[in-house]
Specification:
The complex is a heterodimer of chains A (139) and B (198). In chain A, strand 1 and strand 2 form a beta hairpin. Helix content of chain A is 18%, strand content 37%. Classes of the chains: A alpha+beta (139), B alpha/beta (198).
């Protein structure tokens, strides 16, 4: 009886290890030729649990050739399982007025265990100077 | 003996209504009352064999971001660029209105100030012709056309089904007959049945 319980337990643990805990190994060049310009950010965390699993590592911004603000956010999954979430970029003009269109849609995204990933968006027009990114964990 | 019996009756009196209340709660929870929702919210429906409204939003958002970042629309002699929406080929098993994709893109491009779209309203075109009269002034031709294709790929293993919708778009330079931008967004859904939530 004991043996059969242990056997089933081992199978279950093995199955769990094979299905839920595949993490990502990465390699990159150590001497970077590109320069990333990180910007200071301000965060409001209401979902501590999600934040502890998927964290914002940094935010950097650049301007496109068409004078549009382009923002890139680096995320890292600190857990060993895949995480699903929605994100949404909101844009504001110089007067702080929100300017939304389809580039502010809720976008579903997923990140593998241990993976680092970038999400980006481009301002809907040249008058947008500020932004905000929202994250909502999947159910 | 009597106190024990009374105690049992009391217990039943309390437990029975509690049980009924719990059952009511369970049955009431099985359905949801109609309420307004936001496109692409946490409660979005995920259909395996159908392009959902948030899929169009996702594909359009990706295309607009990519197109604006490319700067392709800025390379015209007289900005803003004049764009005409061309044909979007539907290679899926369902009947779809491609305006759900193209309208979102044209609205965003118009709001960006990088492009204006050519009139497709016949009434407006008639007025334009009348106003032109005998004037030999040539109507401005579009700098770009936007064309594309939506492709559906279905794979099955046992009960599990994966459907991938590929939204392919091309920005065509009419003067030089070249494609100056191309974008593709793949939206994949996998499961054994459709669900609520993502």
């Amino acid at each position: 009886m004991k043996t059969s319980i242990s056997f089933l337990g081992a199978i279950a643990a093995g199955a769990l290890a094979l299905t839920g805990c595949a993490t990502v190994n990465t390699v990159e060049n150590s001497q970077k030729s590109g320069q990333r310009y990180p910007i200071a950010d301000q965060r409001v965390i209401t979902d501590e649990s999600f934040n502890s699993r998927v964290a914002v590592i940094g935010v950097n911004a650049a301007t496109t050739s068409g004078n549009l603000l382009k923002v890139q956010v680096e995320l890292e999954n600190h857990s060993s399982s895949i995480q699903r979430f929605l994100y949404r970029f909101e844009w504001f003009d110089a007067n702080g007025m929100q300017m939304n269109n389809i580039v502010s849609a809720n976008i579903p995204e997923q990140i593998e265990g241990g993976e680092s990933k970038f999400i980006y968006s481009v301002a809907p027009n040249p008058v947008c100077k500020d932004f905000r990114v929202k994250f909502i964990a999947a159910k | 003996m009597i106190p024990i019996l009374t105690n049992q009756i009391m217990k039943n009196k309390i437990l029975l209504p509690l049980g009924l209340a719990a059952l009511t709660a369970v049955f009431a929870g099985c359905g949801t009352d109609a309420h307004y929702v936001q496109t692409g919210d946490k409660e979005q429906l995920v259909n395996l064999g159908q392009i959902n409204i948030q899929d169009y939003a996702n594909a359009a958002s990706d295309a607009v971001k990519d197109l604006l970042a490319s700067g392709a629309l800025d390379r015209v002699p007289t900005p803003p660029a004049l764009l005409e929406i061309s044909r979007i080929v539907n290679n899926t098993s369902q009947q779809i209105d491609t305006d759900l994709l193209t309208k979102k893109i044209s609205i965003a491009l118009l709001q960006s100030g990088k492009a204006v779209t050519k009139i497709v309203d016949p009434l407006a075109s008639n007025y334009h012709q009348e106003l032109q009269g005998s004037d030999t002034k040539v109507t401005r031709l579009p700098d770009f056309t936007l064309s594309g294709k939506i492709i559906e790929t279905v794979e099955r293993v046992g009960d599990t089904r994966r459907t991938t919708y590929s939204f392919q778009l091309s920005l065509n330079d009419t003067r030089n007959e070249i494609q100056v931008w191309e974008g593709e967004k793949e939206i994949g859904k996998q499961g054994t049945r459709s669900s609520v939530g993502f």
